[in-house]
Each structure stands twice: as structure tokens, then as C-alpha cells.
Amino acid sequence: MSLLSIIIPNYNYGCFADRFFGSLVAQSMSLADAEVIFVDDGSSDDSLAQARKWAGRVKCRDFKILAPPRSGKPGPVRNHGLDQATGKYLLSFDPDDEMEPEFLSSCVGFMDSNPKVSVVYTDYYEVSPAGKKHCVLPDFSPLHLRTQNSLPTSAIYRRELWDAGVRYRDNTTYEDWDYWVQCLLLGAKFKRIAEPLYIHHFHEANFSHQAEKEDGAAKARIVLNNPGFFHKEVRGWAEDFLRGRAHAPSFQRGYIPTQDDIVKLSDLIRTGEI
Hints:
Radius of gyration: 19 Å
Number of domains: 2
Oligomer: single chain
CATH architecture of the largest domain: Alpha-Beta Complex
Structural class: alpha/beta
Helix content: 25-40%
Mean pLDDT: 94
Order of helices and strands: EHEHEHEEHEEHEHHEHHHH
Shape: globular
Low-confidence stretches: none
CATH class of the largest domain: Alpha Beta
């Protein structure tokens, strides 16, 4: 067993390889007991050639390059890599982003020192055409996941969660949100490190753009995938939304309605105010 498995789900991100892998080899933590699992989802660019190039440069315990059949969704790609991971700690990290030098040492060190913590995540910088900004995430609360996803994909967690059956589902484009709900239902304890330790690059090829287009259905699937986590009124909204009922709107992007939201909406419909 290795200390850390780093899963890299990739599709046509070869142009970002030097930036990402450069940040990986620049980590202050030694990678001697870490494995890198690069999973390519049928790229048509030079992604595989870039991965092979960096396989000889990253001084890690093992560097696997996997090329399963094309999926078109990041969840199954992550699952494919995680299924072969041997790490005590697991990390899925998108290769269009990059790590700050202390990212791995801070997260792994925190997990080593806090055995009751199951998942650790950090603040980050966002870089877009508008510039660079520091994104401060909230300290974890289970209530957050009932309405919005306050956790990044790049959280590090213990493999016991994977071994207990948590998987990325392919019926929602908010697959990471769904994943963290599954972890929470298994009793996972989440903690935030209040430092910006990685950089998220916002660009036109981000998969998140596709997720936004499918916002309502993606949220409804999270609710129905995890019915015990959501109030019956919210489950009813999810079922009605997927049936295309006019009284079950999507609500704002990235927000799952609460019981109160749905009751208020029903009152407005009943009184003819909308």
C-alpha cells in the first residue's frame, strides 16, 4: 500500500500537462511513497504522449497510464483510476488546475495528525480572464450539502470511504457533490484548511460548463440518489422536476431547494401570485 494515490482524470487537456505536472514535481512533500494514476478518456490531442513524457520525470512510487473506453463523463473516469489505487489517502485532481507547493504536505500532514478526520479540503485561487482571486470556502456543515456543494473536487480522503462503497455516479453532472453526500452518509468527518493551496483555472473547456447546462436534472438526481439525506418535500420536487412538471422549477443554479422553499412556492402557486 502506498501513502497517497493521485488520480488524474483527463480528456484533451494535454496543453495543460506541463503546468500541472510541473506543479506536482514542485511539491515540498516527497512523492516517493505516492502513486500517480493518469486516466485518459479517449483524448484526441497529445495527452497520452504528455503523460508518457512526465512518467519519466515524476519521482514517485509508481506512475500508471490507463486508457479505458471513452466515457464522456469525469465520474466513471475517476472510478476507473480509484479502482486500481492502493493509497491510504486518495485524491482526484483535474489536470487543468495546479497545486501550490505545500498542497500535498499540508493535506497529508493534517490527515496524519487527525485520525478522526475522513476528508480534508483547502481554499484556493481562481484564475480567469478577469484576473486572480482568493476563494475562501466555508467551514464544513452537513446543512451545506443539502442545498449547495461547498467542497472542491480536490479534497483528500481516506480510502476506507472508497472501500465502503462510495462511487462517482454517472447519472448526475454534479458527480462530486453526490460523492461527498455519500461520504457524509457513511459518517465521514470533514475539515477545511484555511489556506489557498491550489489554483483552479477557469476556461471554456471546463466540464463545469456542461454541468451548468444540466443544473436542474443534476440536482434532482443527487436528491433521488441519496433519499435519506433529503426531506420528503425535496424528494417530491426532484421527482416532479424530472417529470417536467411546471410547478417544479430548477431554482437558482447550484442550489437544491429546502422544504421551506418548496412550501413557499406552493403557496404562491395556490394563491395565483405566480
